[in-house]
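ENTRY TYPE: paired fold submission
RECORD: A
CONTENT: sequence, then structure tokens
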Amino acid sequence: MRLLLIEDDTELVARLIPALHRAGYSVEHAANGIDGAFLGEEEPFEAVILDLGLPGKPGLQVLGQWRQKGLTMPVLILTARDAWHERVDGLKAGADDYLGKPFHIEELLARLEALIRRHFGRADNLLQHGDVTLDVDKQAVTNRAGEVIELTKIEYRLLHYLMMNPSKIVSKSELSERIYEEEHIKDSNVIEVYVNRLRQRLGKDFIETRRGQGYRLKE
């Protein structure tokens, strides 16, 4: 899952990004509202963490701009704890949830996961397709033989995205956008290597190749 973090507090960013990585997310960061608004409009993200007190362009304006343009990705806004009016204004502008500063990172991760689950119409952190189950909390998968397999960061991101979109044909370029970060080379040819690794663990027919289109979970 690919996230956009728009926050100008450098100390908070330094704590948040590693925690988000450990939770299995790839993260793009913008330190001001102008860059953040542009990234949100130009690139695909599964969710956004948006501070309201941003330089360049206020977070509330960024959010309103996105919603006016029809962008529907889940947005979690960060506000000062005592600024109840900011929370109200943010929710009215189209935010999906809010979190007051200071906060525990564990709560942010839980709220973020809940937002993404709701956006994809999922009820809990266990994703099931056929007789394969992905535990989002543990970043581990149970295969058809009942074996629990820990996944690498890239394997987890790839499988998570496919299982959140089980009936969708996903192109190599779309997968590379979801699993790599801005500073990494988005080599779509490497996707085939990771798909084959997952097939070895979950069954050769678990991920179907659609020639010239991409990949989809086998129905």
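RECORD: B
CONTENT: sequence, then structure tokens
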Amino acid sequence: MQTILKRGLPLVRERVHQGYTEWMLDLEQSLYVNCLANGVAIPELDEYKRKREDREAREKRTDSGRSNLLERTNQLGLPASKPYVNPNKIGRNDPCPCGSGKKYKKCCLG
């Protein structure tokens, strides 16, 4: 494990310094957590800690006025919403749209 950390740490630090798309993955946070977990000290550690604390405080302020997260999500953790129902959907017992006069289930559906 230490071998992977020794090889990977400089690569991740370089990517953070070069820049990356933060909305996909927060490399600074991952780097901070891994350094703490493995007892590795890097010069940027204090900066990453400060950013993490600032982000957590900002999220706490933002969430304080909102309703409970579980109330706003469905069982899969996705935003709760009404399912889309096509208003033009043809029922099985409706007249067939082809004009035969038969029920849809006996004509084009079957």
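NOTES ON RECORD B: The chain has a mean pLDDT of 76. Residues 45-64 form the longest helix (20 residues).
STATUS: closed
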